[in-house]
Amino acid sequence: MTGRAFILLCVLGAGSFAKEHPDFSVLRDSLLTVPPKIQTRWLKERGYRLPGLTEYLKPESTGLRLVGKWGRGRAWEVTGQDSLVFMSLGSEVAILNFADPEQPELLTELQLDYLALQARVRDSLLVTGRNGIDLWSISDPRQPTHLSHIPCFVSDFDVVDTFLYFVSTDTFNIYNIARPASPARIGFCQDSGEVVTATRNTSVLLLRDFLAFIDVSDPTAPHQVGTYGGWPLAAAARGNLCCATFENPSQPEESWFDAIDISNPAAPVRLARLDDVSGIDVALEGSYAFVPMQIVSIADSTHPYLVGEQGLGGMKWGIWASLTLSRCLVASDCVGLQSVDISDLGNPQLDTFLLRADMAVDAWVDGDRAYVANYRDGLKVLDVTVPASPVELGGRMEDGSWCETVVARDSFAFVGWWPRPTFRTVLVSDPTNPQEVAGFSVPSKPEDMVLRDTLVFGAGRLRFYAVNVAQPRESVLVGSCVTGDATSAGLSLRDTLAFVGNFVSQVVSIADPASPAVVGTFGRGAWNVAPRDTFAFVSSGGVIVYSIADPSQPHAIDSLSLGPSTYWVEPVGGLLYTGNRDGVHVVDATDVHNMREVGFCATPYSVKRLHYSTPYVYASCWDAGVCIFESTQVAVGEVTPALRKRAIGLKVLPNPAADRARLKWAEPPGWAASFTVRDVLGKEVMRLDRAAVVGRTVSLDVTTLASGVYYVEAAGQGRRESVKFVKR
């Protein structure tokens, strides 16, 4: 069973379950088998509208700033021009140089704020899109320059000459992009579908059970003129020829390739049919059509024939080929970019795998490294010394395995893996080449883990356990107990208690790690439970506050709805960072009976988990990789544009600071009259007067401050300026 027939069988069962239980994670699992180009249609047919998946445009961020991201996710599409190759990968587009096909060079990874399902290139212009369409100059492919943005959600699009074709909200659009810095819509008509391919005269739309042909010979007045029946998967057009693949959903074994004459798009004519050739992308190069991964000769379009084929792994979403480079490149969801040598077209050979990646489901930060559990692609190690530009150092993966959680310290990372052994120790002293050095099976596959001193605490389905890692190469199970059923458990610790997000969620005593025991229950399911003082914040649709003054009898006392489902809560001082279906929200929870949202930043995809490591919040965003955020001036007065022009350049040195620091400014020497230190909620925690000033500096004693983010506000001569610093 292959292609769409397999897809439909998979998603119909899962989709009905999702309707009965409107859980985004269930729906998301169903989408794993749905081709990116038809995901929107699939959702609409089932009545779903989810941020990040349907027609949703990114709102303005407040109180939270995206610092940087590592956007690798599943591989969606690949396209190219000459020796440059563009790979849509999660929420980034990787640009590679294939001048030497044996040693391709990664030039840059262009980070986007949406899943980069589609990309097209024309001369020195790159077009990317999904939650909007962006145009980039690639005159220097190492440093693409953003030119413009079109705020329209798209599933697919095509570029021919200076025209951009796409469908958004059931409207077919034509934009003139001759001036890419200011694209202009010049024509439109009411038509649905996905623009999968276009020629100078005809644009081809893919719909559920037919292809539609739009006459674009006059770009100011496009109109549908014809259709071609069947269950199309993909199409590519050139001149008067359209090559398309089809499958019969009621007969899984029935698939075919059609060569179609579209010289008169009002009456398309089938020239030939080739059975048992099918795929969800088609690329035309020379006298050949490439379908992942089959090569069809179309030198005589009335008699196409199969030239060669090669079996490849993964769900093959996209394909591009170059006869000049003797390479066919295939984008295969979790496998990444597969490079196939086609110097012998009759016998294509898999050459190498590039840019392997998958879904980021957990992250742990230790010093200047971030460790990412990347599901089917195993463990990834990132250098986050410069958070704005995370760099992948190395990783460890194993075909046919699933990596779901990770913790790390110094030279060792401890990873929850499946299949057995489920608890693995990885030596990361050389982060470019992590090596598994030990492993054993804990009572159930870890869904989440927390490292404290020499113990790793883990939560899995029906089980909680403690592992002694004092000797990392000889880790030992200390104790375990039975807990609730969990398909995506979250785990938090406070003193001698562990809080497990389960169905139902529970409180576990870890006073004696050899004999952990359930001492309380929350009576409801949750993705995670995060304690703070005598309260616990439960992510269960929204944020529910429980009193845990008596851990044996937690009871709900208040709640806050943040709109889209909340999957994770991370308390930091008086703030809550929440991972939601639409992004990261910041909540002022100083008063749990009067919680209010004070910040938000959208993410390219739903947030799976959050991890706080001063002063940044790391969000694992499924297909979109890992996003790194920091708080801005939440509840602190904003500096007006007029004052910003008169800024005197405040600095705190060193930053971060452990005990003492100096506040410096440029000029004039006697500018400031008062100094106030505030926390991220705007609460005053320290005040200094003019007497503390020596020249252009003032000394700050921060030994009494708790670790976290603070702002020093200086005022004088009718001006006010503030600067952020971190207390270690």
Q: Report strand %.
A: over 45%
Number of helices, counting only DSSP H or I runs of 4 residues or more:
4
Instruction: Specify the biggest β-sheet.
Output: 4 strands, antiparallel
Strand order, sheet with most strands? 1-55-54-53
- CATH architecture of the largest domain, by name, is 7 Propeller
**What fold name stands as the CATH topology of the largest domain?**
Methylamine Dehydrogenase, Chain H
Query: Residue share in helices?
Result: under 10%
Keywords:
63 strands; mainly beta; about 725 residues; Methylamine Dehydrogenase, Chain H; 4 helices; disordered N terminus; 4-stranded antiparallel β-sheet
How is this structure best described in words?
- The chain folds into 5 domains: 3-34, no CATH class; 74-354, YVTN repeat-like/Quinoprotein amine dehydrogenase (Methylamine Dehydrogenase, Chain H, 7 Propeller); 359-431; 442-521, Thrombin, subunit H (Beta Barrel); 641-727, Immunoglobulin-like (Sandwich), CATH 2.60.40.
- 5% of the residues lie in helices and 53% in strands.
- The chain contains 4 helices and 63 strands.
- A 4-stranded antiparallel sheet has the order 1-55-54-53, with no helix packed on it. A 4-stranded antiparallel sheet has the order 2-3-4-5, with no helix packed on it.
- Helix 1 packs antiparallel against helix 2.
Structure, briefly:
The chain has 5 domains: 3-34, no CATH class; 74-354, Methylamine Dehydrogenase, Chain H, CATH 2.130.10.10; 359-431; 442-521, Thrombin, subunit H; 641-727, Immunoglobulin-like (Sandwich).
